[in-house]
Amino acid sequence: RSGSFLGRARRALDDFDHAALHRVHLWDARHFSAIRSFADQLPSLGCDARRCAAVSEAVANFDAVVGPLAPSLPLATLHGDFNDANVLVDGDEMGLLDVGDSVYS
Model-level pTM greater than 0.85? Predict the structure, then answer.
């Protein structure tokens, strides 16, 4: 039910655009590799070396696999932070909170 709701919400945004949607945002999967700047700081913060390596590997894998495909993927306005803390439910009705993470991606 959540997936259907999110799909309807995404389609409802088809004609919506705003300059603030066009930015580098870490929740935007197209800019996943931007977390490298944070990941590079993890070792100096005392994070476990294996976990630091796993984060670096995830970014490298994304760059290698998804990066080349990104220009060919369709773009649309997305909510950007769909999770249980941002969904309102009242019986059969659902709504979204926290539209500040919305992006054109």
Answer: no
CA–CA dist 28, 62 (Å, integer):
13
Supply the DSSP string of 79-100, one letter for each residue: -S--SGGGEEEETTEEEE--GG
Contacts of residue 42, Cβ cutoff 8 Å, sequence gap at least 6: 51, 52, 55
Amino acid, res. 104: Y
Chain length of the chain: 105
105 residues of the chain, pLDDT tens digit each: 889 999 999 999 999 999 999 998 877 888 888 888 888 898 999 999 999 999 989 989 988 998 899 889 899 999 888 888 999 999 999 999 988 889 999
Q: How far apart are CA 105 and CA 71, in angstroms?
A: 11
